[in-house]
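Standup notes
- HV: blocked on the assembly model, inputs below
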Amino acid sequence: QSALTQPASVSGSPGQSITISCTGTSSDIGYYNYVSWYQQHPGKAPKLIIYDVSSRPSGVSNRFSGSKSGNTATLTISGLQAEDEADYSCTSYRSSSSTYVFGTGTKVTVL
Amino acid sequence: QVQLQESGPGLVKPSETLSLTCSVSGDSVSSANNYWSWIRQPPGKGLEWIGFIHYTGRTNQNPSLKSRVTISVDTSKNQFSLELSSVIDADAAVYYCSRLTALGDWYVFDYWGQGTLVTVSS
């Protein structure tokens, strides 16, 4: 099962905004608005930060936002902070197989 | 507070079967609204969904692993389990169990175990 495609790394300075793309196909990201994003610090379990493309769970900073265009979803982190340095993964439901697929993961570095 | 905890051998020999159990507290695996999932992450790589089970016994697996994966649930112990047969080096990973629950319009992995590292070596 092919993974969703993310850039391996993205970096930015404190206070800046960065974006992370997540590219799939017309069978997953392009078919449903069921994209979610997870933040993972080293040695820790992933944490849900965005669901349904652009919704934030209770308690997640509004500096995290999501969007989608066609087969590509995007996570934006605004006002970058040191604590945002982590790995980020997208996931989507895939209609062709009724399964879940994760992205390849992106390491965010705060310069 | 929902908590999940993986348990099982940290070392498996090639060609043998990997067996892990996830113990759930703070929720019931018999909850109709939830599915119980296994996800893995090879060292330095991305997450990979393995499969899920509902208490009714309904399961679904990653097509890439389907022929080797068995997921089961034990409602009396509030646990669910993973078996992966004929393991190879590429199966070495941190294995997570997670709750898949409805949020908004669909389902999300909202609670995760801490993960357990499984090494494949003879």
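- HV (later): unblocked. Chain B has no helices and eleven strands. The mean pLDDT of chain B is 96.
- Next: hand off to the docking folks.
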